[in-house]
Design goal:
Length: 433
């Protein structure tokens, strides 16, 4: 153990009535929900970047956090890893996630970056073996360094494309070596600021070529995990090629990769795209590409991605309802892509933020399971569309306009509107919360 979290106890479940801040009220990892433990349903993961690497800055101000591991040396990178695994064990999360730049110092070139990453991967491997912790997913940071200011795969400079491809390979190798269950592609700057200097067709083709290389390399090295794309609208660029689930699916279909790649959906990104979290999850479920989630929330009074820890149980209940309808996670999980507020300076803040988020997710999961098991919401949905299950309804979809027009005339079809019962269903949902 390092000294950073000194005095903070192991977090255990004590139930809803406890007054202990450092305890779970709703997250009981062994509690069965729909015949599966909460731990296996939720598959919690800590995000290395926000929890360990973020300095507390925002668009208008710099670093507010002072962490003993901040700095660009391998010694400090190992101290950061020591502290990270202390946190993972205090929270008893089964997984973590990382970008390459989160865990290793920036080198002078690609070769040094890779040596640094490989050394930390060895260190992680020892810690994972000792603790039983697993890697939910790895990814490459292809957005922070100035070389990526015009994108990575979509960059107008082929040398940046090449550097990015090599970096992805090294990160896929690291993920594979650590037994990662997924590999994520996050296109933070894969977009444009202005069409005046952008060839959209060329850039989409480059992104498609890069993704095909990733899929090919996955099979070459025998990586059994899932390749995930994380949809992201705008911010920091004006437009991004992976705007939302629908855009990503269209891209995958265009390049024939819809059977190879799924999505990692973030709550905050869904809001920035003008959708709800459950909308994005439901669409991914319907399209068969739901893979994993990044759990956080945005401040609805801000127009940017604030990455706050989740605390809205009704929102999470509807999100986990869609996940349960999809059959639950396979290789995916619930990663806290969330960061402290820049005024939350203490080590206790970092632990308690996760405790609150885990409890809120657990409460949402239990409400979602109760809704699904009760069946009233699904019964109401089925009743609304029951006409389409009749022979006449089924025949309509394989008919033609002229035949349908004749049928409407002969039977004098003149339908009256029927209530969608929205408020009644909203009241129903609230009974489970």
């Amino acid at each position: 153990m390092t000294d950073f979290f000194k005095g903070i106890p192991q977090i255990i479940y004590e139930g809803p009535q406890t007054d202990n801040e450092f305890a779970f009220r709703h997250y009981n990892p062994d509690e069965l929900v729909m015949e599966k433990s909460m731990k296996d349903h939720l598959r919690f993961a800590c995000a290395y970047w926000h929890s360990l690497a973020w300095p507390g800055g925002d668009p208008f101000g710099g670093q507010t956090f002072e962490r003993p591991w901040f700095g660009d040396t391998m010694e400090l990178a190992r101290l950061k890893a020591d502290t990270a695994f202390d946190m993972f064990q205090i929270l008893d999360v089964p997984f973590f996630c990382f970008h390459d730049a989160d865990v290793r110092p920036e080198g002078a070139n690609y070769a040094e970056n890779t040596r640094n990453l490989e050394a930390i991967v060895e260190y992680f491997g020892e810690k994972m073996e000792a603790t039983g912790l697993q890697l939910l997913w790895g990814t490459a940071n292809l957005f922070s360094h100035r070389r990526f200011m015009a994108g990575a795969a979509t960059n107008p400079d082929p040398e940046v494309f090449a550097f990015s491809a090599a970096t992805i390979k090294s990160c896929m190798d690291a993920t594979h070596k650590l037994g990662g269950q997924n590999y994520v592609l996050w296109g933070g700057r894969e977009g444009y600021e202005t069409l005046l200097n952008t060839d959209m067709g060329r850039e989409r083709a480059q992104a498609g070529a890069m993704l095909q290389m990733v899929v090919d390399y996955k099979h070459k090295i025998g990586f059994d995990g899932t390749i995930l794309i994380e949809p992201k609208p705008q911010e920091p660029t004006k437009h991004q090629y992976d705007y939302d689930v629908a855009t990503v699916y269209g891209f995958l279909k265009d390049f024939g990769l819809e059977g190879e790649v799924k999505v990692n959906i973030e709550q905050g990104h869904a809001i920035l795209a003008g959708h709800s979290f459950e909308h994005e999850l439901a669409l991914a479920r319907e399209l068969g590409i739901l893979g994993s989630i990044d759990m956080n929330r945005n401040d609805y009074q801000s127009g940017w991605d604030t990455d706050q820890f989740p605390n809205n149980v009704p929102e999470m209940a509807l999100a986990f309802y869609e996940i349960l309808r999809a059959g639950g996670f396979t290789t995916g999980g619930t990663n806290f892509d969330a960061k402290l507020r820049r005024q939350s300076l203490d080590p206790e803040d970092l632990i308690l933020a996760h405790v609150g988020g885990m409890d809120a997710c657990a409460a949402g999961l239990k409400a979602a399971a109760a809704m699904l098991e009760d069946g009233k919401l699904e019964a109401a949905r089925e009743e609304r569309y029951a006409g389409w299950d009749s022979e006449a309804g089924k025949a309509l979809l394989s008919s033609d306009l002229a035949s349908i027009e004749k049928q409407v005339r002969e039977k004098d079809i003149n339908p009256l509107p029927r209530s969608g019962r929205q408020e009644r269903l909203e009241n129903l949902v609230n009974r489970y919360l």
